[in-house]
From TrEMBL:
It comes from the Bacteria. This is Helix-turn-helix domain-containing protein. InterPro entries: Cro/C1-type_HTH, Lambda_DNA-bd_dom_sf, LexA/Signal_pep-like_sf, Peptidase_S24_S26A/B/C. Keywords: DNA-binding. PROSITE patterns: HTH_CROC1. Gene3D superfamilies: lambda repressor-like DNA-binding domains, Umud Fragment, subunit A. One of its GO terms (molecular function) is DNA binding. The keyword DNA-binding applies. It comes from Defluviitalea raffinosedens. Residues 8-62 form the HTH cro/C1-type domain. PANTHER family: TRACRIPTIONAL REGULATORY PROTEIN-RELATED-RELATED, TRANSCRIPTIONAL REGULATOR.
Amino acid sequence: MSRLGQQIADLRNKKGMTRKQLAKKAGISEKALEEMETGRKIINSTILHTFSKILGEPIEDGVINDDFFEENKEEKRASVKKIEKRKDTETAPIEPIWNDAFSSVLKTVPIYDYTLSNVTGSRQLPVVDNKVEGFSKDKVFYLTVEDDDMLGFRMMKGDLVLAFSTHEFNNQGFYFIEYDGKRMLRQIKKLSQSQLLLIENRGVVKTRTVSPQEIKILAKLIRIEINIL
């Protein structure tokens, strides 16, 4: 049994949970959990984060690879032109110059709750060709996940999702929507011109068929950023 697998098994037993119970809450098969605990299957950072939240304690490991979501996407480099020193003795307004320079290569992206009216924080992301992650820099924002409706898709309460503002459904993916008076994250698939499939996954997949007129699309998700602890 691997050291990491042993930690998971010990915490699971400490909480009085069977493999079947933990696997169901994490949205994986009991066999997969058994292979992780016995060291026969590699545990990526996302599922490790899920276990930590379910078991209520951090699970530590050395270097963890994640092939599904990138927790810390490598920042794209952009060059800043050198500002020539003024030769005269007059003091140059250095701070405004640097602020202007950095605003062209970094974008302060706000973090919202589901109301989209309360800013709870911000993060800086690189700007390339006046875009962030390939989308207009003025349309991207973060959402703090407010529930575990998408637990099976590795989106848990407290995680951050990067999104871009749109009111159109263009292809299947994960969206921030308003439906039946509530705002939520859902995977959406197109069934026909008049039908869409809303998918929820709390470990058990639930679906609902709706017409495009029944929902209001607020944004499409780009990626999720998780905290291991």
